[in-house]
Write a structure and sequence with these properties.
Strand content: under 5%
Number of strands: 0
Radius of gyration: 20 Å
Helix content: over 70%
Shape: elongated
Number of helices: 3
């Protein structure tokens, strides 16, 4: 996750909080909801980026284990979703 992505997510979270507060001030449930959705979307983006960074780090630390896990997941997916 780049510094730009982090800053963008934080800005979206702050804008969402502002939009939510604006909705409360003018008694607009629509703006309140949009602000909350924007905040949660930014927080979800944090979580996804953190998970991707974790996977990237683990893959770089032990590529053989990652390859075996990926092969196992592929095998299970083929068994579950393959034609019978």
């Amino acid at each position: 996750m780049s510094l730009f992505d982090k800053a963008n997510d934080k800005a979206e979270e702050v804008i969402g909080k502002g939009q939510e507060e604006f909705g409360k001030a003018v008694d607009s449930p629509e703006h309140e909801l949009k602000g909350k959705v924007r905040q949660h979307a930014a927080k979800a983006s944090y979580a996804i980026d953190d998970a991707l960074d974790c996977v990237k780090t683990k893959t770089q630390d032990s590529p053989l284990v990652s390859l075996v896990i990926a092969a196992g997941v592929g095998f299970l997916a083929a068994k579950l979703f393959g034609r019978r």
